[in-house]
Write a structure and sequence with these properties.
The protein has helices at 10-21, 33-40, 50-55, 71-81, 98-110, 126-129, 139-144, 146-152, 166-193, 201-208, 217-228, 244-254, 260-272, 278-291, 298-301; strands at residues 2-6, 25-29, 45-46, 62-65, 89-92, 114-121, 132-136, 158-162. The protein is of the alpha/beta class. β1, α1 and β2 form a beta-alpha-beta unit. The model has no long low-confidence stretch (mean pLDDT 94).
């Protein structure tokens, strides 16, 4: 089917490529014309503006937004609602707050436009492995654009998880869990690194992937990071948070759910910005491996 893709960063560009490989027609737009040109060489139809993109889509249109959460997403949706027609569909695949998604759904409905929130996981590996998709919104709208989800996801990697907001709420909690898992790996490897035994950390990470109860994709990425840099000597232990951990902790408070592991893992990221630790280096390296998130290098810190 035909889809408009707005935002051609790490995720949007790879998703476009996967859709093209799945024989969908993709009309792309990004504020950076070079990004549009790059996707056009792969078979996408380039657009010079949102209005140009909408004009190149056939009704009923489907448009996927893959831009940063908050104001960039808000601005994009407001402009789109002035261009789209009743029966069209907007899909927000970014890491938006679920409250914002519910409000945007209500606003879109006033214009007769369907709005779906698609929690998207898979990072920079999604092009090869597929993206895990948690989709919230009206059933009829989800079904209409389902071919898109089925192409982007691996087998059994997509589900319609509930009403408006459910997709981004589940992705929020997913990322909260990720915070806790990253913290556990980071702390564990710091204990190993500071012990008297002089462990080969890459060897242990590789060993634990074979039959261990703590094996996981994150551990595979730890093995990759340690293979490239066994001491993580070129990485500063400075770990950003993109918002989902904070929202998960707030949801836990609002719902009277005890979530000490996720809460402390969030606070540990704050600590990482004030002092150096191997645990924080490990978390920074893992985030770079799965999501392409920028890491602060020691050379940069000394400048």
């Amino acid at each position: 089917m035909q889809l408009g893709m707005i935002g051609l960063g790490r995720m949007g560009a790879n998703m476009t490529t996967r859709l093209l490989l799945g024989e969908h027609e993709v009309v792309v737009y990004d504020r950076n014309p070079d990004a549009v040109a790059a996707e056009s060489t792969e078979g996408a139809v380039g657009a010079t503006s949102l209005a140009d993109m909408v004009a190149k889509l056939r009704a009923p249109r489907a448009v996927w937004i893959m831009v940063p959460s908050g104001k960039p997403t808000d601005d994009t949706i407001h402009e789109l609602l002035g261009l789209l027609q009743a029966g069209d569909t907007i899909i927000d695949g970014g890491n938006s707050n679920f409250h914002d998604s519910q409000a945007r759904c209500k606003l879109a409905k006033e214009k007769g436009v369907d709005f779906l929130d698609a929690g998207t996981s898979g990072g920079v590996w999604g092009l090869k492995n597929g993206y895990c998709l948690m989709v919230g919104g009206d059933t009829a709208a989800v079904k209409r654009v389902e071919p898109i989800f089925l192409t982007l996801a691996p087998k059994d990697g997509y589900a319609h998880v509930g009403a408006s907001g459910a997709g981004h709420f589940s992705k929020m909690v997913h990322n909260g869990i990720e915070y806790g898992m990253l913290a556990a790996y980071g702390e564990g490897f710091e204990i190993l690194e500071s012990s008297e035994f002089g462990y080969d950390l890459h060897q242990l990470a590789s060993l634990w992937l074979r039959g261990s109860v703590v094996r996981s994709w994150l551990l595979e990425l730890a093995e990759l990071a340690l293979r490239d840099d066994p001491t993580l000597g070129d990485i500063r232990g400075y770990v950003e948070d993109s918002g989902e951990g904070r929202w998960t902790v707030q949801a836990a408070i609002d719902q009277n759910v005890a979530a000490p592991v996720i809460t402390m893992s969030l606070f540990s990221r704050f600590v990482s910005r004030k002092e150096e630790s191997f645990s924080a280096k490990m978390i920074a390296a893992l985030r770079n491996q799965f999501g392409g998130h920028a890491v602060m290098r020691e050379t940069e810190a000394k400048q």
